[in-house]
Amino acid sequence: MWGGRGIMYPRASVYRGHPLLRNTSSEAGKLIRLPNTMEQLKHLIGKKFGFDTNGAIITNEEGAEIDSIEVIRDNDRLFIVEEYDFIKLDANKL
């Protein structure tokens, strides 16, 4: 996405829930412009989806935790994963 003066702003699609648990009936994602820090990213995601992201982690499509804003690329798909998502994931393994 291009901003003013030819500056490119990276963006990402963000989804709520673990990528391995989502299905076609899951909540729609949100397209966001990436902020400068992980803290800002989690805050923005919390505002977009209307929940507290403290204790949640951000993963990629394979479920790998992302802990640095620098590794996120333009058009990446990100997932905000809450603790109960891990409980459901463990229950599905049984």
UniProtKB/TrEMBL annotation:
This is KHA domain-containing protein. InterPro entries: KAT/AKT (IPR045319), KHA_dom (IPR021789). The keyword Magnesium does not apply. It comes from the Eukaryota. Residues 11-94 form the KHA domain. PROSITE patterns: KHA (PS51490). One of its GO terms (cellular component) is monoatomic ion channel complex. Keywords: Ion channel, Ion transport, Potassium, Potassium channel, Potassium transport, Transport, Voltage-gated channel. One of its GO terms (molecular function) is voltage-gated potassium channel activity.
